[in-house]
Amino acid sequence: MREKRLAKELLSSTGLTPLDAARLVLETVETLGERAKGMGREELMKQLRRVMQEGVRAVEAAEHTVTLREAVWASVEARKGLRPVSRRDLRNYARRLLRVEGAGDMLLRTMRVADCKRLLAAAFGSSASSYKKGRAVLSSVFSYGRRQEWCDENPVSRIEVPRLAEKAIAPLTPEEVQRLKEAAQKPQHRAMRFSLRLMLYGGIRPTEVSRLRPEDIHWEEGQVIIRPTASKTGGGRAVPLCSMHGLRQSERSIPRNWQRRWQALRRAAGFRHGSWVPDVCRHTFATYHAAAHRDLPQLQLIMGHRDVSLLRSRYVVPALRKDAEVFWKSAGRE
Which member of 125, 198, 210, 310 has the greatest number of CB atoms within 10 A? Predict the structure, then answer.
């Protein structure tokens, strides 16, 4: 009787009865199974205490989490080493995720595959390309969250990556190339002549051209160095300087307000909004280089690709040799 009264007093602050406590102990012993068999009272008490302590730690770990909003911005902040353009894109995709109603307040640890699918569909469902990039961003948030022990798994890893059909981009026709070059001859656009030639006859991306510094251009060696920090992919490369004759010394530089000047040059050449394909100058260079020289390994080095597969699937489209000849001959006529 005394032990029963003492048990009631010990349990009074918990709201549990001695019967509740007995059931919990019995369930724990049954769960331990073979581990609890043959143990004496003291040894069993030690084992039960250990189970409770480990259980408390497991519960605390399971409840340790943050909201998706906190996880997203912590993940972005952790990637300070990204180039400015990549960091800007990452922030844009993060904002699109968090604009979905209720997304920011979701707890990272409680999010499941279905939650992530719904979130991605709402934020990026209108574009397969955006969905793929958004999926990568959300996956990186969960990967970062796992390292911080905010969640136990990455549910995005179980969401299939959408397949994107790579569409070949048709090169500019010789006539369209000529229109661009004629527009660049006009006084208000002459500062873009050098940039245009780098894009047309070097295959350098517009963003890469805009980031060039004077020390990247080596006239005596006839090449331009694309620094890793200036390239789209983060890899550096050397590009031959082609069709640079006739340029005045004052034109051998990259002008300020480059993006605005580049848009103005395209408009002057008759390309209206929506009619210009991004990076088409780079695709034009690749197509006509392949048609004229039949040397994909050399083209691969100039373009900065890891192998020739991307050239075959996306950059190099069938072109008449006569068009390639006109393109390269026009490089010598300014």
Answer: 198
- At 276, give phi and psi (nearest 5°): -100, 130
CB 52 within 8 A of CB 32: no
> For the chain, give me the number of helices (H) and strands (E)?
15, 3
CA 53 to chain CA centroid, nearest Å: 42
Residues 308, 315: Cα–Cα separation, whole Å:
10
Question: Residue 206's pLDDT is what?
Answer: 93
In CATH, the architecture of 174-330 is Orthogonal Bundle (1.10)
The yes or no reply on domain 68-158 and CATH 3.60.21 is: no
Domain ranges for the chain, please list them. 18-63, 68-158, 174-330
Length of the chain: 334
pTM of the entire predicted model: 0.61
128 CB neighbour count, 10 Å cutoff: 13
CA distance 303 to 62: 49
C-beta separation of 241 from 224 below 8 A = yes
Contact 171/288 with Cβ under 8 angstroms?
yes
Q: Rounded distance, CA 333 to CA 324, Å? A: 15
pLDDT (tens digit per residue) in 55-67? 777 666 667 889 9
pLDDT tens digits for range 121-136: 999 988 888 999 999 9
Q: What is the DSSP string of 198-226?
A: HHHHH---HHHHHT--GGGEETTTTEEEE
How many angstroms separate the CA atoms of 180 and 191, rounded?
Answer: 13
